[in-house]
C-alpha cells in the first residue's frame, strides 16, 4: 500500500521506460532482489523525508543500504536524467507544460565559485 502511494501508476509506467533491466543472477542462494517499484518508493521517501538511508522504515521492504546501492546504480546509468526527460516529453505532448511561464532572469541567478 505504501509503495503504491509513493509511486503512482503513472510515474511507474514512465519509470519502467528508463530503468535498466535487472542483472541476471546465477541459480542458487541469496535473497530475492527487491522490485524496482519498492526500491523507487524507498528512494523517494528518503529524498522527501530528509532522513538517512539507515533510517528508512522497514515498511518499504528493502533496507537503507539496499536502496542506496540501487540509487547509486541508477545514478550511474543516468536513470534520473532520462526520467526527467521522459516526464517533460510526456507533459509537453499532453499540453500540460507551459514553458511561457518559465522565464529565468539571469540578474537574479547567483553563480557559485569553485564548483
UniProtKB/TrEMBL annotation:
Residues 9-84 form the Insertion element IS402-like domain. It comes from the Bacteria. This is Insertion element IS402-like domain-containing protein. The lineage of its organism: Bacteria, Bacillati, Actinomycetota, Actinomycetes, Kitasatosporales.
Amino acid at each position: 500500500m505504501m509503495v503504491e502511494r509513493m509511486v503512482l501508476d503513472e510515474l511507474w509506467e514512465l519509470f519502467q521506460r528508463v530503468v535498466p533491466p535487472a542483472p541476471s543472477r546465477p541459480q542458487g542462494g541469496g535473497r530475492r532482489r527487491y522490485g524496482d517499484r519498492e526500491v523507487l518508493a524507498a528512494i523517494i521517501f528518503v529524498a522527501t523525508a530528509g532522513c538517512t538511508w539507515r533510517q528508512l522504515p522497514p515498511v518499504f521492504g528493502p533496507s537503507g543500504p539496499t536502496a542506496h546501492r540501487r540509487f547509486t546504480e541508477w545514478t550511474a546509468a543516468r536513470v534520473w536524467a532520462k526520467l526527467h526527460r521522459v516526464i517533460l516529453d510526456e507533459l509537453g505532448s499532453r499540453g500540460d507544460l507551459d514553458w511561457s511561464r518559465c522565464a529565468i532572469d539571469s540578474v537574479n541567478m547567483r553563480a557559485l565559485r569553485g564548483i
